[in-house]
Design brief:
The protein has 539 residues and is α+β, with helices and mostly antiparallel strands. The chain has 12 helices and 18 strands. A hairpin with a 2-residue loop joins strand 6 and strand 7. Helix 1 packs across helix 3, helix 4 packs across helix 5 and helix 9 crosses helix 10. It is elongated, with a radius of gyration of 25 Å. It comes from Nocardioides plantarum.
Length: 539
């Protein structure tokens, strides 16, 4: 978890380098570190693969060290995850540096975040499934106040109870428990949580998948992990210390849960769903509302699967929690008190032995297709809803959700039409509003749409607002080339405006490329798709 404000929790997605091609429904391929170098290229291909792997691993290490040192803003958990999943490609001093980052706080070198060296380590306080580790001296020590005089510091007991409560909620909802670590970190086979003064560096918490890559687990991507939490949350004023602890545990322990399915999964999915579940578990804290400022509610032309830690889209992946809130409000079936749809996504994204191992967008689309729709169609519905977010989400008005901006806002008269040319990236949308100006009752709005083929994700929704405030949304039937002509009512006496939502719902990717930043660590195949919308009033 990162610095506050805003509190960011993700980092640079691991760049992997296998030149594999995958479309929306193709099977998920192994990360490059496990790719088979055999074939006609022989040892030369293996050498090139190894070289790329080392470069990518070094880049992940440099990024993580910069985040830990506070030299760049970024997310701790994903940055450390990227080091953990690429560590085997590092050599020499870089391998040693990675080992220091990934070490547990109680190890001789700490983990460069919490280091118990030179401090008095207390016996961990444990439940039947979780152990909380702490020290009684030094900066990392929590308050040792013990109101009930049971020999267990109140704060440590609160952390244990909070983790236990969250764990129970996730298990009851059907999620897999984090994998057991084989008695690392203190001799127990329980899930380990370490307390330390990470708040002074601006961090709330983090989780690290610390199971090394070996020949024994090359075909499985589930990993065991441990978490670090702040020792008092006194540095953060946005919420109370207890509230900050609660949402941090909900978020970070969900990462540990995710790692039990696939620690190599796309960062945007891991962070978006972790931010989503915070509000499902602790609904009144509302910490994730801050992320809506950088999301498709405010930037619909940014691809939904964007994972960004820099520039104007920094932290965009957190705001994507709103997409999963949108989906779970429309498909509200619950299991154990939590919406089941996200569980379904992780079940098909499962990289453990026997799992389907779909990649992020592939898993989302597959779950939605089983419900009779698709990822692209729900992206279009999401875009339409985001134009009026305060009324289209259960908590939209109460929590002041922002509304997505228009791509264009134009008046159309009986004499003056309008033509809009645009380019849309994959999994992105834009909306054009057309308002009748002195248009007679016998006139209709004629729309001519010239988009890209529907196989590349083109979709169009039209929303018409009557003078009485009634909204009607319809789907335009495009031909296979992405073209359509459509006429709808447009009299100034009866119509307030018409909005045309244009969608690039493409989920086609070339997976595991060297430069990939989209789903499956790949490149989107349908970027910057051109299109034209023409409108005029006709009789």
């Amino acid at each position: 978890m990162l610095l506050s404000p805003p509190r960011l929790r993700a980092g640079l997605a691991l760049t992997v380098a296998a030149a594999l091609t995958a479309t929306l429904l193709s099977p998920y391929a192994a990360p490059q570190a496990f790719a088979d170098p055999s074939g006609p290229q022989g040892s030369d291909a293996a050498a090139r693969t190894a070289s790329r792997s080392e470069r990518d691993a070094t880049a992940a290490l440099d990024r993580a060290r910069a985040v830990v040192d506070g030299r760049v803003r970024g997310d701790l958990t994903m940055a450390l995850r990227d080091v953990a999943t690429s560590r085997e490609a590092l050599v020499g001093a870089d391998r040693a540096a990675a080992d220091r980052l990934l070490a547990r706080p109680g190890d001789s070198t700490g983990d460069d975040l919490i280091d118990y060296s030179g401090e008095t380590i207390a016996k961990p306080i444990c439940s039947t499934s979780v152990c909380v580790h702490y020290v009684t001296t030094g900066a990392d020590a929590p308050s040792l106040a013990d109101a009930d005089a049971d020999g267990r510091p109140d704060y440590v007991e609160t952390v244990l109870a909070t983790v236990g409560s969250v764990r129970t909620k996730y298990l009851t909802a059907g999620y897999r428990a984090p994998r057991r670590d084989g008695a690392l970190g203190g001799g127990s086979n329980k899930f380990d949580v370490y307390l330390g003064d990470i708040g002074q560096g601006g961090y709330y918490g983090y989780c690290i998948p610390d199971e090394p890559n070996t020949s024994h687990n090359r075909d499985r991507y589930d990993r065991y992990s441990f978490c670090g939490l702040d020792n008092d949350y006194a540095e953060f004023a946005t919420h109370t210390p207890r509230e900050n602890l609660q949402v941090t545990v909900a978020h970070e322990y969900f990462h540990a849960t995710q790692f039990a399915y696939d620690a190599f999964e796309d960062g945007w999915l891991l962070e978006a769903t972790a931010a989503w579940i915070e509000d499902e578990v602790y609904d009144t804290v509302n910490d994730n509302l801050q992320y809506l400022r950088t999301s498709q509610l405010t930037r619909p032309t940014v691809p939904l699967d964007t994972f960004s830690t820099s520039g104007s889209t920094n932290g965009f992946h957190y705001g994507t929690w709103s997409f999963f809130r949108f989906l779970t409000e429309r498909y509200p079936t619950r299991k154990g008190g939590l919406p089941k749809l996200v569980l379904d996504v992780f079940r098909v994204a499962d990289g453990a032995p026997g799992g389907d191992d779909d990649y992020s967008w592939q898993a989302v689309d597959r779950v939605l297709r089983a419900k009779g729709t698709s990822g692209a169609k729900m992206l279009a519905s999401y875009a339409v809803a985001n134009r009026r977010a305060s009324t289209r989400y259960a908590e939209g008005a109460t929590n002041h959700y922002p509304s997505a901006p228009l791509g264009a806002n134009k008046r159309v008269s009986q004499r003056t039409g309008y033509s809009h040319t645009f380019r849309l990236d994959h999994l992105a949308t834009t909306t054009v509003r057309l308002t009748p100006q002195s248009v007679g009752s016998r006139y209709r709005l004629e729309l001519k749409l010239r988009l890209q083929p529907t196989a590349r994700g083109s979709l169009v929704r039209i929303t018409s607002a009557s003078k009485g405030g009634r909204l009607t949304t319809t789907t335009v039937a495009l031909n296979r080339n992405g073209d359509a002509n459509k006429r709808i009512g447009f009299s100034s006496a009866t119509v307030s405006w018409v909005e045309v939502t244009l969608v690039n719902g493409s989920g086609r990717f070339r997976c595991f490329t060297q430069t990939g930043t989209s789903s499956c660590h790949g490149d989107a195949l349908d970027q910057r798709q051109p299109g034209t919308l023409s409108a005029k009033a006709v009789r």
